[in-house]
Amino acid sequence: MEFTKGPIEGVDIRTIRKFIDERGWLAEIFRNDDLPSWFRPEMSYVSLSLPGILRGPHEHVDQADLFCWVGPGDFKLTLWDNRPESPTYRNRMEVAMGANNPGSVLIPKGVVHCYRCISHEPGFVINCPDRLFMGQGKQQPIDEIRHEDDPENPFVLDEKARRAHLA
Questions:
Q1: How high is the pLDDT of residue 156?
Q2: What is the pLDDT of residue 166?
C-alpha cells in the first residue's frame, strides 16, 4: 500500500502558547469551547519517552486522541489516513512538536499514528483521548490495532527506521 504526502481530513494541528513569567510558564492544552463538537476528552494521561524511542504505529477503532507536546523534549509525529471512506485516504503527514514547537494534534479514529522522541533528553507527551482506557472500570478490550507488531505493515517511516525498529 502506498501513501502520499498530504493533509489528512479531521486532523487538527494547533500551536500551544506558553505564558512565561518569573515563576516559570503555563500553557492551555485544550478548551472545550475550542474543540470540534464531535470530540470531548474522557480522561488524560502523561507518558515519558526516552530519546530515540518510537511509539506505534497503531490506530483506534472508536477512540480519537488529542496529543499535546509542550516540553521537555521534542517529537516527530507521523500520521497515515487508513480510513477508506475518507477523502484523504492514503495520505501521510508529519509534524514536529515539543519544547521547540509547543502544540497539540487531534487524531481521529482510524488514523494510524506513531511518534518518536527526537531530542537528546527524554520528553513528555500528554494525551486526552475521548474514550476511557479499557472502558468503564477497565472491563472492555483495549481499542487499539498495533501495527508495530507486524513487520510487514505498510506504515513505515523509512527503510532505515524500519530496520532499526525491527532489530
A1: 80
A2: 43
- For residues 149 and 58, the answer to whether their CB atoms sit within 8 Å is no
What pLDDT digit, counting tens, does each position of 50-66 carry? 999 999 999 999 999 99
Count of CB atoms situated within 10 Å of the CB of 28? 13
CA distance 9 to 15: 18
Q: Which CATH class is domain 4-166?
A: mainly beta
- Separation between Cα atoms, residue 66 and residue 11, nearest integer Å: 10
Confidence of residue 165 (pLDDT cuts 50, 70, 90): very low
Judge residue 148's burial from the number of C-beta atoms within 10 Å of its C-beta, 0-12 exposed, 13-18 middle, 19 or more buried. Answer: middle
E strands, 18-102, are 18-21, 24-27, 45-49, 54-59, 65-69, 74-81, 91-98
